[in-house]
Design brief:
Length: 86
């Protein structure tokens, strides 16, 4: 693009080429980010808390579908290992 000898259609073709190369670089970066292995960290957490979080996330869909959820949980459960992203 720094070459000023381009004119008319050649200049437009170069602009399109530069734009498409940039687009391909972004796509490649996204693919590499997706393929990169995730580091996991194991932490003990309460399974009751995990269930509560899941129900909270799903609350809108549960109400939308008119689903009745009855949750009972034990007061004393051992803490389980849960995988979290690091």
């Amino acid at each position: 693009m720094k070459n000023t000898d381009f004119g008319g259609n050649d200049k437009r073709r170069m602009e399109i080429t530069v734009h498409e190369i940039s687009r391909l670089e972004r796509i490649l970066d996204e693919m590499l980010d997706f393929a990169r292995p995730v580091r996991l960290k194991l932490d003990p957490v309460s399974i009751n808390g995990v269930i509560d979080s899941c129900l909270e996330i799903m609350d809108a869909r549960i109400r939308e579908k008119n689903i009745a959820v009855k949750k009972t949980s034990a007061k004393r459960l051992p803490r389980s290992l849960w995988i979290t992203k690091r």
